[in-house]
Design brief:
With about 140 residues, the chain is an alpha+beta fold. The chain has helices at about 1-15, 15-20, 30-45, 50-70, 100-105, 110, and strands at about 85-90, 95, 120-125, 130. It has two domains: about 1-70, no CATH class; about 85-130, no CATH class. The protein is built from six helices and four strands; from the N terminus they run ααααββααββ.
Length: about 140
């Protein structure tokens, strides 16, 4: 579970780095992988084991691959239903599945500031972006 939280945090807080990795910018992948490991360390309070580190890297790489498949737009890494999903304009248009959209924080500092998860996201239904923030 901590591996997934670290990956979600890294993807949400580093959308430009995810796009750079998807576009094969030199050194982007190494930086993203390192940020994933650092996120794990912050969340759990210890360095990841070899198995956990490899799981972080594998999950980050899969999400980068999906970002590449999404035309370079950062995604939450899950399948995106074109008929209904979320988009975070604060995170540069990041595409999110409905579940991730409801739980999305733009940065790790958002929760500490009292922000409410999902309120920075607009719902997309049948190609139309909602005028208001939040999902129904």
């Amino acid at each position: 579970m901590s591996v997934e939280r670290a990956v979600q945090h890294t993807i949400a807080s580093e959308p430009e780095l995810v796009r750079s990795t998807a576009n094969a910018v030199p050194k982007a992948w190494g930086t993203l992988a390192a940020r994933g490991v650092l996120a794990f360390r912050e969340i759990v309070g210890r360095p990841p084991s070899d198995v956990e580190r490899r799981a972080i890297w594998a999950s980050l790489w899969e999400r980068v691959r999906r970002t590449h498949d999404a035309g370079g737009r950062a995604t939450c890494g899950h399948a995106i239903d074109p008929g209904r999903h979320g988009i975070c304009e604060v995170c540069g248009g990041m595409l999110l599945c409905v579940e991730c959209a409801r739980a999305h924080y733009c940065t790790s500092a958002c929760g500490a500031r009292g922000c409410v998860a999902g309120l920075c996201v607009k719902e997309v239904r049948d190609g139309l972006i909602a005028d208001t923030f939040g999902l129904e």
